[in-house]
Design goal:
The complex is a heterodimer of chains A (about 550) and B (about 500). By secondary structure, chain A is an all-alpha fold. Chain A is built from 22 helices and 2 strands. The chains are: A mainly alpha (about 550), B mainly alpha (about 500).
Amino acid sequence: MDFPFLSVIALSPIAAAIIILMMPKERGENSRMLALAAMILGLLLSIYVYVAYNQNLPAPQTRWAETLMFVEDYNWIPAVNIGYIVGVDGLSATLVLLTSIVGLGGVLISWSIDDRPREFFAFFMLLVAGVHGVFIAVDGFLLFFFYELAVLPMYVMIVIWGWKERREYAAMKLTLYLLIGSFISFIAFLYLYFNLPAAGVEQTFDLRVWSEANFPFAMQQIWFLPLFLGFAVLAGLFPFHNWSPDGHVAAPTAVSMIHAGVLMKLGAYASMRVGIQILPQGTVYWMPLIILLTLINVLYGSFIAMRQRDMKYLIGYSSVSHMGLVSMGFAAMTLVGFTGAGIQMVSHGVMTALFFSVVGMIYDRAHTRSMDELSGMRKALPWLVVPFIIGGLVSMGMPGLSGFIAEFPIFMGVWQGSSSPTTPAVFNLAPANYYQIIAILSILGVIITAAYILRAVHTVFFGEYDGEKWHDMRPILPIDKFTLVMFCVILIAIGVLPSVIGPIVQSGVTPVLHRIQEAQQSLTVLDSVQVAATNLLSWLGGA
Amino acid sequence: MSSTLTFDWVLALLPEIGLVVLLAALLLYDRALKPVNRRNIGLLSAWGAFTVLILTLGMWLLFDIPDSQQALSVNSLYWGGMIRNDLITLIFRVIFLVALFITSLITIDVPRLQRGEFYALLVAATIGFSLMAASADLIMIYIALETASISSYVLAGFVTEDDQSAEAGMKYFVYGAVATGLMLYGMSLLHGILTSVGVPSTNIYEIGLVLSNAGTIPPQANGVILLAAALMIIGFGFKISAVPFHFWTPDVYNGSPTSFTAFVSTASKAAGFAVFLRVFTAGTFGTPGQESLWWALLISMCVITMTLGNFAAIFQNDIKRLLAYSSIAQAGYAMIGLVVFTPAGSGATMFYLLMYVFTNIAAFGVVILIYNVSGSNDLRDLYGLNRRSPYLALVMLFALLSLGGIPPTAGFIGKFFVFKAAVEAGYWWLALLGILNAFVALYYYLSIIKYMYLYRSDSEDVPIPVSRAAQIGLAVSVFFIIFLGIYASPAFDWTREAANAFFTLVG
């Protein structure tokens, strides 16, 4: 593996961005070609990485360091042991591929953008590079570096090309939420860095070393929350989800796609990679409570989505709800749950990208996203009906599509959560019942999803067609059709052939789960967990 | 400390000697210059600064002067213990020369500043700064500081036909004179104490040796030492514009010619930090600890400086005033590295100042170029800058990102090192305060980005001419903003190694 695949995937968009910015203004048209070329290159390399990883799929490993492939390891700031270390495990290889797919879709969807295309594509490239970087980073500092790098283009793109009415507010809100979240994680990370010797390993930013560290339990208890929640902000965890629907709505289509499709996964991925993997005992201690937050995510998100009349808000809140399922899969702390969460990231990523591209196309032509005004789009834009319905079916977890492959294991994992030996009793419920109740309640989310998706399909596509009003709509471009078909094919392929994604994701999450199991076995503090949990809950309940 | 004049002594002052030559050349050349060639005076200054910079770096790279072994020991004292030629001095000299070089470049085509006196005063101030960073003696500190200050006062009021500039000069002078006077009083108190215990020295390392040894000083003198420390903090705090000695900053930054503002906000601040670090890390007031009240004073100053600077900046409508408050806040971040009193912290502060030179001068450079066209410094002049001049907008974008601490710019790495040093020393709450402050700051930096990229203005069609010299100046700045952000390792190792020299002579 001499060719630096991962570096090229992550850094070629940056190179493209620089070249685009240096192009003369008159040749702004060429910028999209260059962006497309960079994305296609990235996609091909990502596919290669994914396939190569899949073919050499290692037997389930318990050490994260051994599951990494395509590792590149260079010194960066040797004085403080910061390295440029990249590599992928099963999960990140999948997410890199997802990013490439959504990135390509984003460029294709924005093909006809006419307001300062040069800057648009340059910032878009930076955004994609930042996202790629987080997924491949094996060095903690590098991870934060790329993480921040990804947030800023979001700000600029929402502010410049976003929806005029909300963009300034939404962009500032999004940026501050995300950066504050990540920096709170960062402080926790730095604190732990200086306590690495206490955890029995050398002081370095190399996460492979961190993933073997055993911090004292008291430390894990305290620092897990800032470390995990800081990143969970980006995953849209309740009650820190507030930035997300506003950001989705205000962003231009391509950015919404990246934002909901990939960026939110960044938060989930980082909170798992840095939060859960480094502090497994803290995870075991806090997760029974955090799973409640994720439950609220799922239910509350879908109830709010029910109320929305703006299609983008609808999808925005449905994203919050679906990302809640990802966090819930993690919070279940079972292998099935983790695998489901991993697949859900991909499934949801492609699905929201599809949704946002459909809504973007409607908005470009009808100049409204309000479900009160849109109706009968079946006649006006027949090409959008099937993709939207496929997205909708994925969203409600219909068997045969990727949503089912993702959500079913999550529910199953939560149900199984009861079997883990050290799970505390909360609310005076036996652990078995506690997790089962959560699983049952969260499945309700699927039903609500079905309700709002079907209603949206009905009103927008099948209502009465007003020929007068919608007669002059531009047809859907071939390039758009291609994008839609690409997304649909992926959603169906995962649904029909789960084996293309299941094993590789599972191999990625196994080491993390192993850490948790170790923690569960080593923890003999059951009582205190139980006491702390019940105390906190009764305090919250005002009882 | 050798006492005979050797060649080493001359080498220790070579950059300053070079600057004196440049100063003389500027004044002579100014007489000989024809009115049509006025801009050549700026060129001479820029090239001169560049030459001295190369000379300084070349001496270090080729002949290893200052010797990195010797630089850490008492042998680095020259001229009777007046100055110390070590890596710290070298780094700060580089900072000042870079500031002088880029400032000269972006000033070349500002018509009303195309006068020999302006550049000569800039060079004179640089000599002062350079000596401030090198000085190892209270007397030397005072002389160097006055050299720098007096030149600065004149520069602030340089544009005599502009009332604001005159006001800035006057304000700077009055505040500065009081602050320096108080500082001098603090020095005399310190000297008095030393004399009373039989060590009549003004060398900060000798003082540090006495004062950091508990028991040599009678306990009754502790109050006087605290007073002396407080008075000197006033003098130095004025230089770095730390709250509550910052009141001059917005007015002076706003009124002065912007080129000088760029210079004073970087070089002068760095020089202030240089003496601050030198004096306080030498143990001149005893080692920091529970009993040293001045240390608590410094920490609270640091926190207040960050917070007040940032919150005040939010409400500014004038880009220069905004950057003035932002520079107050930046001084607060840099102070974090100072107040933790570890080599890692001091090194982080030096790195921060190094990257801050490029960052802030780039920002002010853009302001100068816009001012040349619009004649005002209102924030509204930045509206639509991206459509008006995409490259200037990009330069400003990078400068703002660096000020805000977003990768891949140097500001991110700078803040990282500072916060890391704080957490390492056990002050994670200080780092947390710094980070929360960084977000307040991000709000107004992002707002400027919004103005440049989103808002429209009526004068979008009016081009902003950017001369070749200014292009080079800005390009160099942006290059280093990104370079230090991506490949910080060499510069960071350099500052870290240098920072050890702060502490090696203590006790």
